[in-house]
Amino acid sequence: MAAEWVKFCYSWLLLWFCIRASESRNTRRSLDNDLLQPYTQGHGPAHSHRHVRDCQALINDNATYESHTPHGRSSQPVAESKVFVTDVEKGTRWVLGHMTVVHDPLKMVSVLEPGGPGGCEMKLRVSVEDTAKAAGCLYAQNGGFFKTKSGECLGNVVSSGRLVQDSNGVQNAQFGIRRDGTLVFGYLSQKDVLDQSNPFVQLVSGVIWLLRDRKIFINESLQAECSETEETGSLRYFADVVSARTAVGHDEEGRLILFQIDGQTEKRGMNLWQVAEFLKDNGVVNAINLDGGGSSTYVVNGSLASYPSDHCASDSRWRCSREVSTVLCVHQPLCQPANCSEHGECVDGRCRCEKGWRGAACDTLVCQPPACGPHSLCTASGCICDAGWRGTNCSEACLPGFYGDGCTKTCSCFNNGSCDPVNGRCVCPPGFHGDTCEKACPLGFFGASCAQECRCDDLCPCDPQTGSCNTTLPVDTNYTLHRAGRCLAKQIFTSWRQEEESHREQPYLTERSWLVITLVLTCLLLASLIISCHQVCHRSVTSRFPERKDYSYVPLRDINGAPSRAAETRKGSLGVEDSDSQDEIWSPSHSGRS
């Protein structure tokens, strides 16, 4: 932070030294001791433009200014400057001055700000020599009024087509050049100053309209601009006192006249009545008075050609030109605008336009909207068509199948779909949909964008384009329907079967249980059958040997001395034999002893 503060202080100190050095080198600075100002406080009258209009003679009707269109004289020299010496008051006083005739003021005269563009905004005061030298003026003289203390430019200022400042309707005499070359002298309303139908390209304010249509107009001007006091007396005194004077006017042919005389207030020079009479005698039609006194300066090729009335600040024995505000500059022919609207080159005061541009200012395209049509843009290269349009004047739409800028992109729409010529979006015919119209309408729908539903009996499909129910569907559609029908029928039958089974009475035992029971019963039946067969066989044997019924089988061991065991054995055997077999039971009635 400290380093930045030191740097800031150093910069300001360096700037102060530069200013002091510049002031020390300017040894030709004047004392501003020959002041000739029309107003003491402020500048210009306090009344409105309507007051000026109402106070003028009826012969002028409502017009408060005069306009004149000059004759073009491009073959003439840029300007002619003459030095004159004339006597005033019957030879008792002689006056030295300069009169410059400019043949084409539109191209050869400019209102310059002090020091160049931006000088009024910065409130600069610069000598006529320095401003003229920087701008390359052949001839130059001081222009409008300014505040001697602050350097503020006064009145309206338009420089090379740029409105530098607007006086807000202050009614002082004005000189201006419009875009078409018309010269304007007189009183302008604020609306006149800001008019853009034929705007001012140069404009400067003076005080007192000297000549109006070859007639001295000073008395009327004093009434219009009010008789306010000023530093050297009243406005009447400002008009009557002899001093150095500067004026601007024009002659019958429209040539601009720059007028400057040397003098010193109350000692030598001319009053405004004498200036007006001199200009009238020299063929001037309209003229206004500009800043005079010590400000009156005339310069040729950047060198002082007049005799200033201000004393030099460095040495009062000598005279120095005053640093002033605006300057009227006569220069080599310039184009209007000087840069030819950035579409051409200025050659000898004429714009040489680039290809595709035309007009005196190269501000008009060769092609215009009526020629290009509503679907294009005019450029230096010709008509540039909007997307979706073609042709020399962009009046033809893209051919079918193409779209975009220059109609160079190919559409990708199927089934005879058309595409938008601007963005290429497909517009599908009835019966199709999709980004590229590749899809047919689903069954049951038809029409544009497949938005309509079929109204056929039994929900039958319809023609996808017309919606007709009496239609033959394509092979692919029929095949699809056939497959879909089989699938649907299968699903329906399956559904029915499942529904029937769900409504049946459920058995108490499962199939597996029934199978087990069936097997068990089968086994039991087989066992019963075997037993029955065995019994049948036994009965058959018994019937063939009846004698065996009366005898019983007694083992020998029981006979040989084991009666008890034999008895037990017999008892047990009889028990078993009774239950198991009839072969071991012998009845005594059937024994062999019989």
UniProtKB/TrEMBL annotation:
SMART domains noted in UniProt: EGF, EGF_Lam
Keywords on record: Disulfide bond, EGF-like domain, Membrane, Signal, Transmembrane, Transmembrane helix
Disulfide bond sites: C428-C437
Region (Disordered): 562-594
PROSITE patterns: EGF_1 (PS00022), EGF_2 (PS01186), EGF_3 (PS50026)
Transmembrane residue ranges: 514-534
GO biological process: secretion of lysosomal enzymes
Signal peptide, first to last residue: 1-24
InterPro entries: EGF, LE_dom, NAGPA
CDD domains for the chain: EGF_Lam (cd00055)
All copies of domain EGF-like, residue ranges: 403-438
Protein's name in the database: N-acetylglucosamine-1-phosphodiester alpha-N-acetylglucosaminidase
